[in-house]
Amino acid sequence: MFAGIPGTGIGGLFYLLLALWLPIRALLMLKDGHPVRWGLIFRQVALALLLIITMWVIGDFVGRCIVVFNSWMQGYSLAFSMTQANLSGKMYNIMKISILAWALLVIAALHLCMYLTYWILLLRKAQLARSTAAPDASLRSGSPASREKQD
Amino acid sequence: MFVSIFEQSATTSEGEICLAACADHSVVEDLLLPQVANPLFCDLTILVPAYNEEESIADTIRSILAQTVQPREIVIIDDGSTDRTGDVALALGVTVLRPPQNTGSKAGAQNFALQSVTTAYTMAIDADTTLAPDAIEKLLPAFDDPKVAAACGFVLPRFVRTLWERGRYVEYMLAFTWYKPIQDLYQKPLISSGCFSMYRTPELKEYGGWHTRTLAEDMDLTWSFHIAGHCVRFIPEAVSYPIEPFNYNFMSKQLKRWSHGFLQNVKLHWQEVLGVPHLRSFVFVAMWDAVFASLAFLVIIPLLIILLPMPVLLLAYVIDIPIVLLPVLVKAVERREVALALASVPSFVVLRVINSYFMLEAFITEMVLGKSFRQYEKGH
Description:
Number of strands of chain A: 0
Structural class of chain B: alpha/beta
Order of helices and strands of chain B: HEEHEHEHEEHEHEHHEHHHH
Strand content of chain B: 15-25%
Distance between the termini of chain B: 35 Å
Distance between the termini of chain A: 60 Å
Order of helices and strands of chain A: HHHHH
Strand content of chain A: under 5%
Largest sheet of chain B: 9 strands, mixed
Helix content of chain B: 40-55%
Oligomer: heterodimer
Shape of chain B: globular
Helix content of chain A: over 70%
Number of helices of chain A: 5
Number of helices of chain B: 12
Largest interface: A-B, 43 and 51 residues
């Protein structure tokens, strides 16, 4: 996120989504007559696409490592493990759609929590405003209760 | 671009960017100082808070005097230094202010000087930070938009030698190449870095300058601007070079200040931040990463490795390195620093785990135990 904060997990994925959304947002801004920095947008989108490809390549690499490692742990030689894993089609990409889906779900849940907190806060503020406005109104209308208060 | 600002602003009223060619600036006469041919001046005061910075303050002042656009005034706030900070600054011909006693924080020193600022713009620069010669020139156009209250630039460590500086180098290259431009494109940079930022003086004074209620006064100010509906901009072309912590002692002090400062700002502003689109998302996601990435690095991964036992899980500490490396390399190619970037990656892995420790410690102290860490310790 910024220096001093660890991790590129959920935050990294969130920024990836934001980068991919940038061209659509830019078009909407253009429609409303706002200036758009296309150069920077294209740069960030290109980076985002490269990051997705990199994620996929890493997933594939780690998948291969795991298969070979497991085979090696069973006592086979490293060269044999690599050949066998290739031949038996046991290679797999750990960057599965399901993992991405889970990560997206976390981002969605995080935002849901955020909006819920916001709405609860708005409701509480509205209630507070009503409760402070009610005595004021009775004071202005000159009700007996308010007259007692004034006395 | 800049010429057009000059032409537009020369005839504008007080408070606009006001530039004028000036050849007889007294300081430039000193042969030891950088000579700038026909520098342009803008209605700007630069504040440099300094506490025992005799070794670095001269470089900072020289880098300001070498700017293609010159400020009206450079003010060094010698905050009770016990070394020759003030004398070095005076010898270079700038204004030196001395508070009656040490103000106790960078924010305190800056506020002391802010009272006397009369220019339309105020810039804050750390006493260990130097600027690229065109940094002010690049930052100024951001204020063409009247809604912009603050602008900051790209930050890079001046020296990249030790493990800590190398780790920080990769962190900055990643943050300022990937995260911060996206935050800026959504018009909500999370922080206008305190080491090099420029502000509209009336807005800055309206918010009481830099508050000492948190340990991250720059983040406090940035969020206050966002909440009030002002714009904050990130200009990657304006580059500054602070001296980053070169050993664990300095680094730990800085990380403690940053992590506690971030959480103190969350505690202070969370209700208002919830009402600011995009900023709330950035803060929420940052909080999530701060807590869960820290837990993963320090607790979950080690536990899994021990309990399962699967040493292959050690890969989790480095699995995202190619993803981190990509934006870093893009910038490194541009700066012709590819070898430096590649050599610095292992340090980044170490620094990230250290970050986790300080962030988790701050979370437990500030959020769980409800204790607020207030001691300001200088850590570069």
